[in-house]
Amino acid sequence: MTLARGYAALAAKEQLVPFSFERRAPRADDVAIDIKFCGVCHSDIHQARDEWGGATFPMVPGHEIAGVVTAVGAGVTRFKVGDHVGVGCFVDSCTTCGTRHVDLEQYMPGLVQTYNSVEADGVTPTFGGYSDHIVVKEGYVLSIPDNLPLDKAAPLLCAGITLYSPLNHWKAGPGKKVAIIGLGGLGHMGVKIAHAMGAEVTVLSQSLSKQEDGLRFGAASYYATSEKETFKKLAGQFDLIINTVGAAIDWNDYIRLLKIDGAMTLVGVPDAATPPVNAFNLIGARRTLAGSMIGSIKETQEMLDFCGKHNITADIELIDIKAINEAFERVVKSDVRYRFVIDMKSVAA
Ligand code: NAP
Ligand code: ZN
């Protein structure tokens, strides 16, 4: 056992505070990782504040982990001390039901999340990346390409894969018009990745205040959803829309922007009930309303290699861990360009 230092929420809606806890000694199939950086995902806030229900405390959030291998178990073959690695939203999964073979393990009930979960033994709580080190089974550790700086690569472990997976599934690429709703942590990764895949990308943001950035990330056009005119002008235009908004917007407005056979995929989790979907908006053009959650380990590695090849990382604001509560408040106000990343050196300071 080793003592880990981090920050935790001790109860829902309380400020995060310094917190020490034990990590297991590496087993034969484990990799021990010195956490250098951890991204701050909006899901960390939803869970630390128990907005989705079922949260367990103390909770050490953090599932956008980037670090360096410090030790490996005797049976580990894919990693060695010094390697740049990442850990995303889960650290174990059901191994008996066969989903590992189809690489959809993120959708199975046996999933063990990186935090706010219990290990396969059913009792040991998992603690996430707002901490100085972590011990993870080899099969759930990702390789971060050497050309990507670890601080800017950390958000790929959740924001990156959450957008890569639906873009990949719905075949974003040359000749496809893709819209991304919300230019936040997830959204800005979506613009960069969809652009690199060759799609024509449009940002649908609440205002034009981040337009310059959106175009720099690779968007061909940028519209304010506060303008009624936007919805008239863009009707029937898109093959794929990815909705990253964590608030209850009216999906009908956006479904009508899809072409015949177009699809809108939800990745954002609304914090309140959304207005009912009018069936005619789907039926009238054989449209699909879909959802998507992170990605498998195989697809996450594929995404990291894709980002390495195209030199894609997040635009970040690096913070001291002591600023985490202020960072949470700023994320809630959509006041972040475009992901907070904790510099884990600060946990010891
Ligand atoms: P974020 O950085 O806060 O970005 C969300 C963006 O949504 C904001 O930047 C803002 O963009 C827009 N927005 C916020 N409030 C809005 C409102 N009331 N109406 C319209 N637009 C609004 O959050 P994130 O980390 O990207 O996460 C987004 C959501 O995805 C969260 O619900 C999170 O829990 C969820 N999530 C899902 C998965 C998955 O696997 N499906 C994975 C990670 C996160 P503009 O300023 O451009 O309008
Ligand atoms: Zn996340």
TrEMBL record:
Keyword Oxidoreductase: yes
CDD domains: CAD1
Alphabetical keyword list: Metal-binding, Oxidoreductase, Zinc
Cofactor(s) needed: Zn(2+)
SMART domains: PKS_ER (SM00829)
Domain Enoyl reductase (ER) residue range list: 9-342
Family label: Belongs to the zinc-containing alcohol dehydrogenase family.
Protein name (record): NAD(P)-dependent alcohol dehydrogenase
Provenance organism: Massilia atriviolacea
Lineage of producing organism: Bacteria, Pseudomonadati, Pseudomonadota, Betaproteobacteria, Burkholderiales
